[in-house]
Amino acid sequence: MNVFIIIPSNIFSDIPSLREKTVRVANLVRTLILFRVRQVVIFKYKERDDEFLKLMDFFRTPSYLRRYAFKKEKVFRFVGNAPPIRAFYEEDKKYRYGIVLKNDGKLCLINSGLKDLIVLSGVNVAEGQLMKLVNDANGWRLATKEEDHHFGFNTFYTDDLIGFLFKMKTEKKLIIATSRYGKTFRTEDLMNLKRDSRIEKGICLLFGSPKEGLFEIFKSMNRELSDYVDHVFNMFPNQGVKTIRTDEAIMGTLSIINLISS
Q1: Looking at the structure, do residues 117 and 196 belong to the same domain, yes or no?
Q2: Do the bridges between strand 231-234 and strand 107-111 make them parallel or antiparallel, or are there none, so unpaired?
Q3: Domain limits at 116?
Q4: Are strands 130-136 and 118-121 parallel, antiparallel or unpaired?
Q5: What does the pLDDT read at residue 261?
Q6: How far apart are CA 146 and CA 176, in angstroms?
Q7: E strand or H helix that includes residue 43
């Protein structure tokens, strides 16, 4: 099952401490990898949070490549306080992330965290760029798009949420919005989703921000949420806190939606 998470750019903008934000982003990345989310779509809402975007990229990158892929910046000051991710692809010997150390146009030298460098010829990839590699019967090669699921999730940033949702609808993906004002999610809804043929194309889970839910976000765009999604569900009808953080909502919702594939 292909799961797409769609979140606003300001989900961590209410955290004043870089230390806390770092740990929260790391836990979010761990959650996304835990449930094998295929893509995270971050749509611009109010402000672009570059710290969040950089930390997302940092934590989804295998630990054996981080020192090569990222320069020392203030935003990475507290990454040592975050829990280890231990993603499934870090130990894989067939599907590897690599970073180009040198490319003279003929030979490309790639560090993939293994004992020896990987050498490819005729590869048009710039030095310092991350790449996905596969080791098959003929040796190492670039991964195809169909093999993407072996490498965790991809991130995509958009300024046009409405356009993206329209694209998902044309691709016959199922779009579910989460809101405390939505229909209470029950067992029969889970069974109905399991029978929905669109889940084969993918499920898109849409979340709001810490201070403004999806109804408020769409109202600010002079749009109706129901025009762009297939369902609006309240996944936590008996919540014991005033507001649920977006990263908490993602963890809880994925735990429920994961039952569809069981």
Answers
A1: no
A2: unpaired
A3: 88-144
A4: unpaired
A5: 77
A6: 25
A7: strand 39-43
